[in-house]
Amino acid sequence: MISKITSKYQTTIPAKIRRMLKLNVSDSIEWKIEDGKIVIEPVENSFLKHRATVKTAPGNIRDDIERARDSMVKKYK
């Protein structure tokens, strides 16, 4: 696969590689040089590992924040 470099030194990641690496818009990649070769790896965003782990439901955000603050105060007393 070949990509061109633009006048701003940007390039397009071929679709096949984006799919293989599961890259999405706003993801980050890391460039490395290993044994004289360029290696590109996706950067794992540790925050996104928690995606969909918090279940949400209708409620009152102010009450939820107050409950969270109270539990933190109790935890660190």
Description:
The protein has a two-stranded antiparallel sheet with strand order 1-2. It is built from two helices and two strands; from the N terminus they run H-E-E-H. Strand 1 (29-34) and strand 2 form a beta hairpin. The chain is elongated. The protein has a single domain (1-54), classed as Pemi-like Protein 1, Chain: D (Ribbon), CATH 2.10.260.10. It has helices at 15-21, 61-75, and strands spanning 29-34, 37-42. The chain is α+β, with helices and mostly antiparallel strands and 77 residues long. The model has no long low-confidence stretch (mean pLDDT 87).
Sum this structure up briefly.
By secondary structure, the protein is an alpha+beta fold.
- Outline type: elongated
Strand order of the largest sheet: 1-2
What is the N-to-C succession of helices and strands? HEEH
Helix content: 25-40%
The N- and C-terminal alpha carbons lie at a distance of 59 Å
**Architecture, CATH level 2?**
Ribbon
Whole-number count of domains: 1
**Range of strand content:** 15-25%
The overall average pLDDT, rounded, is 87
Strand elements, count: 2
How many helices in DSSP terms? 2
Helix-strand makeup class: alpha+beta
Output the CATH class name: Mainly Beta
Q: Measured on Cα atoms, how large is the radius of gyration?
A: 21 Å
Task: Kindly identify the CATH topology.
Answer: Pemi-like Protein 1, Chain: D
